[in-house]
Write a structure and sequence with these properties.
globular; 6% strand; five-stranded mixed beta sheet
Length: 331
């Protein structure tokens, strides 16, 4: 099985802010029901759990969960019942499951938001699959896991910045990451994970500018799928952090040029600037992490304005130097 996993890398406020002309997708909206594997699994008898009902209800997704999230085994493995029993019996995991159930007695808000986002997705990508969405307890592993036509969301990674469990982990979750671990962030992370799985990063040159523009493309698509949301939420920024990027756009680009980072292929530098961080290395401490993704997004905006390409064409384009050249980016 092939799994595409999205970690906690990406809080925002719903608003009437609109990003250009919106598509009319009302006729494409379909009901979304998030399957609650978390509730069903931890409702089993912890002494002698019977997994047959779970297997019948969740089918292959149970394999995705057990193997791709918990790193156990598939249902066909003889050790499956014993290993899953140990997981369900674990006292810490049962406390986590209780906290998740209290935080998410239902997921109606996320289901409504996803219904609209998937409608926009169907409008812009009519030939693409709309996946089934499930919720589970990840054991504080991946936030989102994608396999074939399903997406799983680890709700224990969305318990809010004040969740005590995040301080108890072997490697505590830093506060700048916890800020993006709320129920508000779930729809964005689900769509981001799906976009990345449908349009994987396959650059002609694996350099920083290619990674910047790729991640910028993902945010550009997210803006089309969530047209009612503030842009800073798309980046996982606060309003002040987005304002910092807008006010310092030329300085960000100048920093990359001056240090000859734009076309660097050094993986250490690429990871440092594309991965989440409390601020961007080499820039003021009030800068957000991943400011280079803001630059990538701005390049994509200019490219799309010049070419009028469809979102499908944009996401299929893997020549990121071409995108940069055509965009003629000059902040």
């Amino acid at each position: 099985m092939k799994y595409i996993i999205v970690g906690i890398i990406f809080i925002g406020i719903f608003s009437g802010c609109k990003h250009g002309r919106r598509a009319n997708v009302r006729d494409l909206v379909q009901e979304v029901q998030i399957g609650r594997l978390d509730c069903d699994l931890f409702a089993l008898d912890s002494v002698s759990p019977d997994f047959s009902g779970i297997e019948e209800k969740y089918g292959n997704y149970l394999d995705t969960y057990a193997q791709g999230v918990l790193n156990l085994c598939t249902r066909q493995d003889s050790a499956f019942p014993a290993l899953m029993t140990l997981f369900v019996r674990d006292t810490i995991m049962r406390e986590v499951a209780d906290s998740v159930r209290a935080a998410y007695p239902d997921m109606r808000r996320q289901e409504r938001e996803l219904a609209w986002a998937w409608a926009y997705y169907a409008y812009y990508f009519p030939e693409r699959t709309i996946p089934r969405v499930y919720a589970h307890i990840s054991g504080f592993n991946q936030s989102v896991v994608v396999d074939s036509a399903v997406i799983g969301v680890g709700l224990d990674n969305y318990l809010g910045e004040n969740c005590v469990f995040y301080s108890m982990l072997a490697v505590p979750v830093p506060m700048y990451v916890r800020r993006k671990m709320t129920g508000t962030d779930i729809p964005r992370d689900v769509l981001s994970g799906w976009i990345c799985s449908e349009f994987p990063f396959r650059p002609l040159q694996n350099d920083l500018i290619s990674g910047m523009i790729y991640q910028g493309k993902v945010v550009y698509v997210l803006e089309k799928l969530f047209p009612e949301w503030n842009r800073h939420w798309l980046f996982g920024y606060t309003k002040e952090q987005e304002e910092w990027c807008r006010e310092n756009e030329a300085e960000i680009w100048g920093f990359l040029i001056e240090n000859e980072y734009v076309f660097t292929t050094q993986q250490r530098l690429i990871v440092k600037y594309l991965n989440d961080a409390p601020f961007t290395s080499g820039m003021p401490s009030d800068s957000p992490g991943r400011t280079v993704v803001w630059t990538g997004f701005r390049i994509v905006e200019k490219y799309m304005k010049k070419t009028g390409a469809s979102l499908e064409e944009l996401m299929q384009e893997q020549d990121y130097h071409k995108i940069l050249r055509v965009a003629g980016y000059r902040p």
